[in-house]
Amino acid sequence: MRIASNARDARLARFSYSLVTGNHFPFCFSFSLMPSPLRFLRAGPPPPKVALLPDAMFFTRSVAVTSGATPAEAASQAELALEAVSPFPLPQLYYGWFWRAGWENALVFAAYRRRFTADQVASWEGAELVLPAFGVVLGANVEPATTLILSSPDGLTAVHWTTAAAPSLVISTPVPPEATEADRARVRGDLLRTVGGSKTVLDLASPLMPDPAGSDRELVFRSGDFVSRVPRELTAALDVRDKAELAALRSARQRDVWMWRLALGCAAALLLLLVSEFALLGARQWQQVRIREVNAQKPLVEKITGLNELANRIDELETKRLLPIEMVTAIVGVNNDRVPAEITFTRVLADQERLYTVLVEGQTTNPAQINVYESALRALPEVKSADAVIAQLQGDRARFNLTVVFKPEGLKPIHAVKTASQ
Amino acid sequence: MIRSLRALFLARALREKLLVVAFIAIALAWWGSAFAGRTTVFLRQQRATTAELKVQAEWIRNRSRIEDTAQKAASRLDPTKTLNANQLVTTVQQLASEAGLRGAQTDGPTVTRRLSGQFAAHQVRFTIRGADWAAITKFYAALQQRAPYIGVEQFVLAAAAPNPAHTLSLRVASVEIAR
User: Fold this and answer.
1) What does the pLDDT average to over A100-105?
2) CATH, domain range B79-177
3) CB-based contact A318 B155, cutoff 8 Å
4) Which of A140, A354, A367, B31 would disulfide-bridge A398, Cβ 3.0–4.6 Å?
5) What is the residue extent of each domain of chain B?
6) Quick check: B1 and A25 CB within 8 A?
């Protein structure tokens, strides 16, 4: 297995090293390699972890896909085609395919699982994408009749696009490490002849490397000016790992992204709280100013309220006088002639708060007289309302509460009456 | 920067991610709760101050009208006839005696409220036991004749049924214009 490396990018070199050695947390656990936090933040995210497998270990085919197929239908058709052309059942293969919606062909590729050692497979752990090296060029935009030659120490691979839409042919030829440049040139020529019909031939001196500039929507691979953009939704099909394992990885990834969003949301809320604390601090200063204003105005306001109360008191003393004797006299009559003989008053209360109201507590040996008396009071011209409620009844004896409200104009002060009569 | 942090976060082990999220969430809950409490207290104070300022502004806006009304009301009283706290007690006591009510006694101290500058209002509670109706009406008429310098604010008359004598509780008030 060959792991992508990029001499231009030290971080990528560390990443590649970590992928080989299984240490996937170079920033946290390798203090000698860890950049300063500020430099780390400025540097941007590291490139995605991608394991590139030797092309020579894979066989490739272009298979037909029904027009208008959905991704699920295309996947099942690609798998069916693979089963048909492969001497091994699918569970014994590492396989993938490249297909976009609307295409009528898919490029499928597969390798026998036993060609990879357990150590090689273990080293894929933590990789975002595992695919043959030619897989990363499949997202490139090229002219029709273009052949791309990928060169690696252990072989040459030709990827040919008959139309610009999708690569139609991938051929890989191993080259022994001791081969000379002339040998490699001869193999290249053989590849181009085999492919045939190439108007444009692109030779990539160095393999395509994952670019940190990728996003959540696509993976970007770059070699010099040559760029290949692989949409994220296609990576599931391109990845050659076990599909069930991939589904679990995708699910874990989705969970991690949600956790990140949650953490980010909480962090944003904390930031908002910090801003709000400053706002509250400012608001408290403003409140202090207002409290000082209240305190400064308090003596003046107390003086004004005092004057207002004085005016009200004098007005009450002059015009809103409580007339309790007048009210009692009105309900009992001048010679007690309005009260039935069986009714006795035990308590009479009049208060300035309810100026024209008298509350009477009474008792009687004839409870029926309470209603009679209440009706008699209601009939008086100076009475606005009279309400009697029996509070307690014991045998013939009843205690009752009587509330009588007078009309303001119905009561005349005694001394005023006397003065008028004099 | 966010993308760098995101990559760093996603590269952590699950337990580390959980710890980070839990710590941030706890910090948020703790701080948020404390902040909410302080904000609630502040808003309550702010609303109270706003209301008080509004009330004060209303009083100040009506200042001249209230001063005029108070001035006119005070001008209707003869300062020499207004009663201070002691005069109120002694005058009521005297009127009760003159009406034949011997058992008049104050019930608690005189309550004085300083209204503004030279003005004050006084209140005192009297209890008179063993009073007959005729004496009560005579006393009441005498009190009314002293209006507006003396006012009756509360009147409670209690009687035991077979007993013709009553117990009278009165709260009387006066306004004092200090000379």
Assistant:
1) 85
2) 3.30.70.60
3) no
4) A367
5) 2-58, 79-177
6) no
